[in-house]
Write a structure and sequence with these properties.
Helix content: 25-40%
Strand content: 25-35%
Number of helices: 6
Strand order of the largest sheet: 4-1-7-5-6
Radius of gyration: 17 Å
Order of helices and strands: EEEEHHHEHEHEH
Number of strands: 7
Number of domains: 1
Shape: globular
Structural class: alpha+beta
Length: 175
């Protein structure tokens, strides 16, 4: 906690996640089920977009990473809807005395096209974090045919999150 004469500064974290494509699974990105031949392999629903955001938030608050809070060895998290992960991370951030301010995420995939689903994803992400849709940036790009993503073997996501201290709570006042 800052001393009486130290400024209260926002904090920023970066998150990255990647999952390989897998047959027989749903494809869920940003909390949206997207029609596609393949889903993503993972212990939960493997939503790389929400996982990257969760890691960015946890990193900003210095609270570890998603694997520490939702270990893939724990059967409780099997096939978990990643919106619940993001909501739990928001609660952890709040308990630590911070609130999300801004999220920016890039999905890296050759397919499927993200654009038709982007606005719905922004609304879902904002809802999970108590933000407005305008506080959530979402972009998509390809890997120009290079690497595992470029060969169509999986999807990656990179996120940055900014959080700010809940000053009123820290000073003992009501929010």
């Amino acid at each position: 906690m800052p001393g009486p004469h130290q400024p209260v500064m926002p904090r920023t974290g970066i998150g990255y996640d990647v999952h390989a494509f897998a047959a027989g699974r749903r494809l869920v990105l940003g909390g949206v089920e997207i029609p596609h031949d393949l889903g993503l392999a993972g212990h939960s629903d493997a939503d790389v977009l929400l996982h990257a955001i969760a890691d960015a938030l946890l990193g900003a608050a210095a609270l570890g990473d998603i694997g520490q809070h939702f270990p893939p060895t724990d059967p409780r998290w099997k096939d978990l809807d990643s919106r619940r992960i993001l909501e739990r991370v928001a609660a952890l951030i709040d308990e630590a005395g911070y609130a999300p301010v801004n999220i920016d995420v890039t999905v890296i995939a050759e397919a499927p096209r993200i654009g038709p689903h982007a606005e719905r994803m922004r609304v879902i992400i904002a809802g999970c974090l108590g933000l407005t849709r305008e506080d959530v940036g979402l972009k998509a790009t390809t890997n120009e045919g290079m690497g595992f993503v470029g060969r169509g073997e999986g999807i990656a996501a990179l996120a940055i999150a900014t959080i700010a201290p809940l000053v009123a709570r820290r000073s003992g006042e009501e929010r």
